[in-house]
Every structure is written in structure tokens, then in C-alpha cells.
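Renewal narrative, Specific Aim 1. Our central claim is that a sequence can be written position by position from structural information alone. The example that follows is taken directly from our test logs and has not been curated for this report. It begins with the C-alpha cells describing the chain, in the order in which they were read.
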């Protein structure tokens, strides 16, 4: 296969610049099947998709002015899942391939360096990998419908484009906002990641959100904000940052009616200042819902896109050598990136599959990594009436998860807890 190269999309530019030796921005999507995974068949399935998903099978390359992605000639072999999810991808590994394909008993997982794609693109790829695997293993016919594609067809042009370049407003909007309270704790020496999963009935979750006349994402953000506020009240050294804010990644595909397999999402921060007074659960729900609705209208999102794209297009910045550009991007990221939120809640929504695949699939999971400067994150995905809420942390202190899941139970939502605690 002829090698191709791709400029990093606008959202992807920051991730190689801010990565460290023991941290980079990686996320995981996984599917649990009803039968044990055959690694040889999984590797064949991955190889069969090599030509169909050229922007997924890539390695990170370093140019004089920018990092870029280059296609690889061979799909990575399926490896048995090891250690713990989301171990950092070293620069050496990223030079070979920016994804991992893993298996363990009944589970297939794919981990992505975030410069490759976002959660939506990652889940679309996992669906196709699973479809091809089941076609080979179970000899079933999976139709090309929804996000399942024909592996023999050529990649569609829309799948490989940087959509950020197509939807910016004429004017950018300011990034200025209040800094948020910082969650802290004693880190694990070996970068171990704790994952606590709360499994809840999707119907009951939707019911709780509708009781407050808000979306599921806004309701979960409200409960998380209450947990963070309680955590801050218990903190003997909370610092001067007092705002309680939850970062919500927003999929722009629906906002602008465009599609791509590359990154096409932006994050917004929603929350409140607890020093203004006490808030009831209903008031926090309404705050989160209306802030999220106001910030995600197409005009506001187009302005956010323009702010980022205009900077990328700056002739002065384009002519700056990569080492200096990297330092500048790290500074911008520290000032206007992670400092504005307490943690993320990334809601994938409900996964859908062709009917032919459904009998073979038991569960989906979605796990985003911790950020460099804050140790907790949360990601959500639903399948067949169950919602998996995955909370990850890189510290020993489990108080935030305890508070959050306890609040869900107090509000009448049954929660089944799983953990990889060692």
C-alpha cells in the first residue's frame, strides 16, 4: 500500500506538544463479546481494514514545522491486554503506530493516541473491527449500514478531511474564563490507573434526567459537580480556585452536519461559583443544562473553532520551528486548557449496531485517560439498556468516586460497581 501522510487536524495539534515521558492523551473503546476472542482472527480482521481506514493506521512523524501522521504498511498485531488500561504510549511506540489492538478473554479493546481521532471516530472503528472479526469468526453477513462500512470500498473523502477548516466563524471568541478548583492526591509511582465502573439502568438514568427536564449529560454533570463541591469542602487546602466546573467534550458532527474519522470535537466548561450561595440539586441541573445549551449552539461553536483555526493559520506561527512552537503550545495549554475545568465527563451516548451483530455483543466500554494536571476523569457509554460510567484516576484517593456514586444512589439510581483496584 502506498504511504500517505496527513497534517494533524486542528484538535490534534496540541497532543504531541504537551505529551510527557510518563503521560500522553490516550483513550480506549472496548467491546465485550459473548464468546472468547480468537487473537489470530482478530489480527486478520485488523489487517483487512488497513486500506479502508488510512487515517487510523498511522504513526506520528516529526517535521521541521509541524508533527504529521503517516500511514503504516501493516496493521498492529492483536496483543493480550496487559498491565492496566491506557498505559502511556512512548514516542518510540508512536513512531511505529498510534493505536493498540488488545484482547482479554471475551474483550476486544482499541487504544488511540488522541491525535488520530476522537471518541466518535474511535467507536466507529471499533464497530467495524468487531464486524469484520465476527464475519471471519462466526461466518455471518454484516450489512454496510449505519457506521459499518464495506471493507473492500475505498475510503470516502469526507472521512479523511479536517472538518475544523470548514466550519469556523468569521471571528473567534475569547478563551478567557475563571480557573477551576483542582482535584489533587498522591499519585501512583508506576502510573497505575484505577478504574471504577458504575453500571446503571439506562431507562432509570434517562428518567432521572427528565425529572429535572434536562439531558442525561447535563444531569450527570450536575451530580458530578455536587460531588466535586463536597470534595472541595473536605479539602484542608482547597487553594484560591473555587469555581466548580465540569468539562464536556462536544461532538461537532451533529452540530455542523459533517462527518470525519478524524478529530471533530471541542470541549466546553460548565459550572458555578459556590461562594455565591448554596444551590439545590434542581438549580445545579438547570445551570448545567442551560449553560451547555447556550455554549453549544452552532454560532458559539463556530467562534470557538475560528479562535483555534485562525491561530493555526497565522503565518508567523507557521514559520516558527517545531521546538519553539511546542513550547508556545504548552504555555497556551497550561493557561487556557486544563486549568478551566475540574474533570471531564465524556458521554458517548447509546451505541447502535446492525441486527446481525447484536446477539454476539454483551457490552461496550469507553475510557478516557487522566489529564496531565488533574487526576480524575469520567466517560459514559450505553448499550442494550445498561449505561457504563467509567471513572478513572491516577491517584490513590478514591473519595470522588465514592461521593459521586453515593449521590447517584441517594437520588434513586441503582448502581452496580466494578473496579480494577489492585
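The sequence written for that structure reads:
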Amino acid at each position: 500500500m502506498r504511504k500517505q501522510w496527513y497534517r494533524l487536524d486542528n484538535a490534534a495539534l496540541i497532543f504531541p506538544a504537551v505529551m510527557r515521558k510518563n503521560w500522553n492523551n490516550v483513550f480506549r473503546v472496548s467491546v465485550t463479546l459473548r464468546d472468547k476472542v480468537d487473537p489470530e482472527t482478530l489480527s486478520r480482521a485488523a489487517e483487512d481494514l488497513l486500506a479502508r481506514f488510512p487515517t487510523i493506521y498511522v504513526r506520528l512523524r516529526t517535521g521541521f514545522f509541524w508533527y504529521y501522521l503517516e500511514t503504516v504498511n501493516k496493521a498492529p498485531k492483536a496483543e493480550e491486554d496487559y498491565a492496566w488500561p491506557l498505559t502511556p504510549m512512548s514516542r518510540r511506540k508512536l513512531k511505529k503506530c498510534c493505536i493498540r489492538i488488545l484482547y482479554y478473554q471475551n474483550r476486544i479493546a482499541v487504544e488511540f493516541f488522541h491525535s488520530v481521532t476522537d471518541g466518535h471516530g474511535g467507536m466507529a472503528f471499533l464497530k467495524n473491527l468487531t464486524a469484520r472479526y465476527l464475519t471471519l469468526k462466526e461466518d455471518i453477513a454484516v450489512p454496510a449500514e449505519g457506521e459499518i462500512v464495506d471493507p473492500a470500498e475505498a475510503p470516502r473523502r469526507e472521512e479523511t478531511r479536517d472538518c475544523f477548516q470548514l466550519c469556523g466563524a468569521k471571528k473567534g471568541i475569547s478563551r478567557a474564563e475563571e480557573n477551576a478548583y483542582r482535584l489533587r492526591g498522591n499519585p501512583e509511582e508506576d502510573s497505575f490507573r484505577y478504574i471504577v465502573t458504575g453500571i446503571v439502568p439506562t431507562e432509570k438514568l434517562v428518567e432521572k434526567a427528565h425529572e429535572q427536564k434536562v439531558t442525561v449529560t447535563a444531569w450527570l454533570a450536575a451530580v458530578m459537580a455536587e460531588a466535586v463541591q463536597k470534595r472541595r469542602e473536605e479539602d484542608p487546602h482547597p487553594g484560591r480556585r473555587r469555581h466548580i466546573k465540569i468539562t464536556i467534550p462536544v461532538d461537532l458532527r451533529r452540530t455542523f452536519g459533517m462527518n470525519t474519522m478524524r478529530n471533530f470535537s471541542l470541549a466546553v466548561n460548565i459550572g458555578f461559583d459556590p461562594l455565591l450561595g448554596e444551590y439545590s440539586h434542581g438549580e445545579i441541573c438547570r445551570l448545567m443544562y442551560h449553560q451547555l445549551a447556550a455554549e453549544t449552539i452552532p454560532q458559539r461553536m463556530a467562534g470557538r473553532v475560528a479562535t483555534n483555526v485562525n491561530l493555526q493559520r497565522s503565518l508567523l506561527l507557521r514559520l516558527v520551528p517545531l521546538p519553539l512552537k511546542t513550547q508556545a503550545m504548552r504555555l497556551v495549554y497550561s493557561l487556557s486548557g486544563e486549568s478551566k475545568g475540574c474533570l471531564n465527563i465524556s458521554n458517548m451516548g447509546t451505541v447502535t449496531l446492525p441486527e446481525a451483530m447484536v446477539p454476539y455483543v454483551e457490552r461496550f466500554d469507553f475510557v478516557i485517560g487522566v489529564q496531565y494536571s488533574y487526576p480524575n476523569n469520567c466517560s459514559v457509554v450505553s448499550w442494550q439498556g445498561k449505561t457504563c460510567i467509567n471513572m478513572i484516576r491516577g491517584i490513590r484517593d478514591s473519595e470522588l468516586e465514592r461521593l459521586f456514586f453515593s449521590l447517584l444512589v441517594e437520588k434513586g439510581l441503582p448502581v452496580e460497581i466494578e473496579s480494577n483496584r489492585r
